[in-house]
Structure formats: C-alpha cells, structure tokens
Amino acid sequence: MSVKADGPYGPLIPMPELTPDALRSAVAKIAPSRVPALTQHLFEATTNAQQTQSLAPLRAFVHSWAVFVAIERHPGRAARLRELEAIADAGDGDLATVLSEITAIRDAAEAEAGL
C-alpha cells in the first residue's frame, strides 16, 4: 500500500529542525494536547541521559517526536494512521496489509524528518 498524499494543500507546517525547542513549538501548533507528553518525555530523556552518561535517551526523544510531527503535520496521513491502528487493535482485516501500511507511513515520516 502507498502513503496517501495531502492533495494540493500540503503539510500544515514545515518540518522543524530536530531540536527539543523546535519540536515542542511544532507540537504546540499541530497537536497542542500532546505538549505535556512531550515535556514529560523530554524530562525523562534528560534525566536518563545524565544518569547513564549517554545521549541515547535524547536521540530516542528526538526520533520519536520528529516522526510524530512528520506524521501529524499531514492531516490525511495522521488520520489514516489512526484508522489503521484502530483496525489493528480490533483485529479486523488482513493484519499483514495493515501493518505494512503502518510501516510505510512511519518510514515515510522518518525519511521526511531526515532520520
């Protein structure tokens, strides 16, 4: 299955830089209800990075939220992903096809984010 395009209107916002501040600003614009989750995740990633003396938790934070923004800035893509996740949760349809399309959406988002 292919990833659906947004049509002539394009994304809601440009893809931000892959920094915590830029990602927070993007999330505030496209999914303001998710800002508390982003803030909590950043706090946990920072704490873990300090405790482990590793940047891996911060890289995981950036990766996770960059993919989220890349998906959510395209309303059609975001809606399709939610639809596919609901189908998978319900166990309806051909699970392999559903998972393949979810993977395609996430892969496209990663590429768009430059990950």
Q: How large a portion of the residues is in β-strands, by DSSP E? A: under 5%
Rounded radius of gyration (Å): 15 Å
Helix/strand order, N-terminal first: HHHHH
What structural class do helix, strand and pairing data support?
Answer: mainly alpha
Low-pLDDT residue intervals, each spanning 5 or more residues: 1-7
Mean pLDDT: 91
Please render the helix and strand layout as text.
Elements: H1 20-30, H2 35-52, H3 56-72, H4 75-90, H5 95-113
Helix pairs in contact: 1-2, 1-3, 2-3, 3-5, 4-5
Task: Walk me through this protein's architecture.
The chain has 115 residues and is mainly α. 70% of the residues lie in helices and 0% in strands. It has helices at 20-30, 35-52, 56-72, 75-90, 95-113. The two termini are 22 Å apart.
